[in-house]
Amino acid sequence: xxxxxxxxxxxxxxxxxxxxxxxxxxxxxxxxxxxxxxxxxxxxxxxxxxxxxxxxxxxxxxxxxxxxxxxxxxxxxxxxxxxxxxxxxxxxxxxxxxxxxxxxxxxxxxxxxxxxxxxxxxxxxxxxxxxxxxxxxxxxxxxxxxxxxxxxxxxxxxxxxxxxxxxxxxxxxxxxxxxxxxxxxxxxxxxxxxxxxxxxxxxxxxxxxxxxxxxxxxxxxxxxxxx
Length: 227
Ligand SMILES: [Zn+2]
Ligand SMILES: [Zn+2]
What we know:
This protein is mostly helical. Helix content is 58%, strand content 7%.
């Protein structure tokens, strides 16, 4: 089901691509009416900027896809496996932006930047980790919110603060609330419950055989109830 998260991010990239095509048409129309390079130059800059943003979305989608595939493949051989979200720290989102930390830049695309910040700030090997599960599933705002709640994630807070100062807080109440609602539905479908420790195991595309605590008494998603 992580494919759904990937699809959502790819969908955003596709919408940017459409807008870029419209912009190019618009530039042609203006050129046909004799508008000069003062105008078309600005449009070109915008198109270049959009191409960068589009590429950054596609990179995030690729990273999510790879994380999901790797998790599913590895879990076919082992009861649990490191998910290595931290390994996606080198997402390399964007070009020529402000670099806040290795792999974390301000590109102007707040969601992609938050996704990169979460990947850079968080590295763990826990199948019980909801931060990793949310990130992989494409619920970037939830992952960022959980991470800042649990953990010291100064780089995530930094990215957020930079955008918030410009009136574009990516974790604003409305968007975060929507992401949370979607995450609740998605996570209920992939969350197994361990009877041994009452812990959660997030398994999207694979079947857990045992919990980290050693127990093999696991309830399928939908049977354990939310924590
Ligand atoms: Zn994690
Ligand atoms: Zn357990």
